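Troubleshooting: if your tokenizer reports a length mismatch, compare your output against this known-good record of 51 residues.
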Amino acid sequence: MDKDKIEQENGSMATSFEEVQQLGKQMEKRRDEEDLEEAGRQSDPEQFDDE
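Known-good structure output:
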């Protein structure tokens, strides 16, 4: 994918199969809570909808 041609929008869906593949690779590399603790980092707090 050519990064110059991609204009990112928050909350948008993947628009091509290549983008889906790239997002899958990012998810595979995502660190879980244990990995973050070992690195001395904290995960983002849980977000709740109080409605």
